[in-house]
């Protein structure tokens, strides 16, 4: 069925292919043809053709019981990260931050009511939830998400949080509107956010904004710690100052990066 409110240049087949990729979520690594068709709202023959096309392109594979995505799908997200240039700018600063705190550090951006991780320097620790590039979590229950939500224009928070999460994660903290707004006001006042096991047991983190040359928040940077090893006091008193300094350095470098022309040399062949 064609979508409503699409323009004359809208490519329905491409949209359907992306719909099929998106139905594979945590807990649904392998799906039957019927499950894919139902979840994507497609007829079985259409879903089958899309899956076979994705398989031929290397983005899907046949498995016992159905189909699964391949790691090649990650290239779609990595292309976005590389095109931004943020990883190249942030990486040396994040590596120094991780070396000093001995905790993992990540950068995330807002996508609907979720955050999506776009850069990460990790230390080997056992944590409740696994994190990698492309991982999604509900924004409101993370320090990264609180920073990003607090930076939205007035009225945008309600619209963004009205979108259903696509993370597959059920957060522990479920505030009402008044409690939520009070939490975001505090973040705006402080300029940073801290969460203590609001997303899941054992996870504490503190985050700060990354800004462009005009002062706009483009992403958020965090330090993530295990609650059994790192107290809230240590997170705020020892790690936060280092985090704020790092976020400032990345923002300053990003402002310079934006001003420099970036040209890809054309092939002379």
Helix content: 40-55%
CATH superfamily of the largest domain: GAF domain
Q: Low-confidence parts, pLDDT < 50 over ≥5 residues?
A: 264-269
Sheet with the most strands, sense and barrel status: 6 strands, antiparallel
How much is the average pLDDT?
Answer: 88
List the helices and strands and how they pair.
Blueprint: H1 12-22, E1 30-31, H2 33-40, H3 44-57, E2 60-63, E3 66-69, H4 74-84, H5 86-101, E4 104-111, E5 114-121, E6 136-138, H6 143-150, H7 156-161, H8 177-190, E7 193-196, E8 203-211, E9 217-226, H9 232-259
Antiparallel strand pairs: 1-3, 2-3, 4-5, 4-9, 5-6, 7-8, 8-9
Task: Write out key terms for the chains shown.
single chain; 269 residues; alpha+beta; Arc Repressor Mutant, subunit A; Beta-Lactamase; 2 domains; six-stranded antiparallel sheet; three-stranded antiparallel sheet; 43% helix
Structure notes:
The chain is α+β, with helices and mostly antiparallel strands. It has 2 domains: 12-69, Arc Repressor Mutant, subunit A (Orthogonal Bundle), CATH 1.10.10; 76-259, GAF domain (Beta-Lactamase), CATH 3.30.450. It has 9 helices and 9 strands. It has helices at 12-22, 33-40, 44-57, 74-84, 86-101, 143-150, 156-161, 177-190, 232-259; strands at residues 30-31, 60-63, 66-69, 104-111, 114-121, 136-138, 193-196, 203-211, 217-226. The strands form 2 sheets. The chain has a 6-stranded antiparallel β-sheet, with helices on both faces. Strand 2 (60-63) and strand 3 form a beta hairpin. Helix 2 (33-40) packs across helix 3 (44-57), helix 5 (86-101) runs antiparallel to helix 9 (232-259) and helix 6 crosses helix 8 (177-190). It is globular.
């Amino acid at each position: 069925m064609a979508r409503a409110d699409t323009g004359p240049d809208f490519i329905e087949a491409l949209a359907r292919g992306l719909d099929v990729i998106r139905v594979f979520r945590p807990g649904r690594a392998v799906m039957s043809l019927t499950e894919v068709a139902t979840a994507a709202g497609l007829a079985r023959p259409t879903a089958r053709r899309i899956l076979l096309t994705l398989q031929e392109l290397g983005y899907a594979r046949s498995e016992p019981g159905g189909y699964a995505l391949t790691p090649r799908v990650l290239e779609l997200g990595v292309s976005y990260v590389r095109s931004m240039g943020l990883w190249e700018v942030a990486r040396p600063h994040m590596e120094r931050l991780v070396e000093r705190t001995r905790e993992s550090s990540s950068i995330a951006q807002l996508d609907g009511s979720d955050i999506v991780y776009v850069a990460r320097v990790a230390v080997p620790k056992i944590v409740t939830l696994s994190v990698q590039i492309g991982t999604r979590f509900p924004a409101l229950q993370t320090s990264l998400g609180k920073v990003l939500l607090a930076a939205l224009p007035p009225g945008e928070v309600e619209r963004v949080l009205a979108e259903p999460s696509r993370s597959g994660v059920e957060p522990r903290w479920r505030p009402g509107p008044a409690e939520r707004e009070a939490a975001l006001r505090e973040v705006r006042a402080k300029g940073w956010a801290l969460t203590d096991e609001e997303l899941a047991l054992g996870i504490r983190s503190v985050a700060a904004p990354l800004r462009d040359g005009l002062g706009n928040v483009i992403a958020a940077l965090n330090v993530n710690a295990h609650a059994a090893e790192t107290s809230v006091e240590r997170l705020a008193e020892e790690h936060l100052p280092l985090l704020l300094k790092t976020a400032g350095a990345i923002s300053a470098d990003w402002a310079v990066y934006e001003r420099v022309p970036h040209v890809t040399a054309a092939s002379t062949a």
